[in-house]
Amino acid sequence: MKTIHIESSLYQGVRHLKLTFEYDAAVIRGIKAISDARWSATMRCWLLPYTDESISELGKLGTDMNLYMPDYERIQAERRSRFFDRNLKHESERAVQLYQHFLRAQRYSQKTIVSYTEAVRTFLSYFKGKAIEEICNEDVVEFNYEYILKNRFSLSYQNQIISSIKLFFSSVIKKELTAMEINRPRRGCKLPEIFSVAEIERLLRSTRNIKHKAALALIYACGLRRNELINLRITSVDSNRKVLIIKAAKGNKDRNVPLPESMIVLLREYYKIYRPKIWLFEGQVAGTRYSETSLREAFVRGMEESGNRKRLTLHSLRHSYATHLLENGIDLRFIQVLLGHKSSKTTEIYTHVSARAIERIRSPFENLKL
Length: 370
Hints:
The chain is an alpha+beta fold and 370 residues long. The protein has three domains: 5-80; 90-181, DNA polymerase, domain 1; 197-358, Intergrase catalytic core (hpI Integrase, Chain A), CATH 1.10.443. Helix content is 49%, strand content 9%. Strands 1-2-4-3 form a four-stranded antiparallel beta sheet, with no helix packed on it. Strands 5-6-7 form a three-stranded antiparallel beta sheet. The longest helix has 19 residues, at 155-173.
């Protein structure tokens, strides 16, 4: 079943529905049939007008094509909500702008800046009749119950919006909100889907284009995030030391990861054919970065060619890298460093998916004498 993720997003000052999904020609044809649908090369996604008609048409498309749209009901509720009027008073609008400046100065990613300011704008819209200085912990608790919980927004969104509100008040309003009085949702523990070694071999063998093969192989070989791969420069490859140098990754952190000799050989074969100028992987125009969409399409084609029908994503290659390292006896602390995780708790999830670790566990049932 194909999955489409939906979110409301500002584009050129106008609110749209932003659609992201793995490449599928039939789904794209269906979206194109919706009035005023268009592809945004800047945002690398499909955009629909933020209207009841578009939401309704999207719902029909999902039903007709048996699509999984986990955000659809939330978007419907958001559209109906009386709190979505974002025309703030001058004082509040000025505070949001100051918050944006603060986030940029702190070098937050553009994605975080947009999501955090949108969250604060929603929150201030809820309390339009109240001065910002008068807002207190009880108001945040009310917002949590009346807006987030009643609309059944996701746990991640709930945590994100509370974090953004707290940071807004501490950085701009200079007022601390007591964490103990703002209940956070309990985080779930969703295990990552991973490839077996044999499945990765089939995927790479089935990917005949040397550029696509090198890109997918490098994600697995070094446990890269998608953006980390796209932002690699030619100089990121240190073949003498056999390391890949990753600059300004998530959290603005640098790290080096081991680069296998066989991966260096593959990259050399790729370089001889494509001769990139600046970025390790470039688009059709020399000197421009490879797009996320092209990378995703290469992955989808490889999955289809290899006959793999599991619901895996590009990020599953990174999960597989970490899990396979653990199964090969690499210490969890080293894996944390290689992945660039800030907290060891993030890395510990791989202990739950290591097949060899599970196989070593002896069930008490084996002690029974039947």
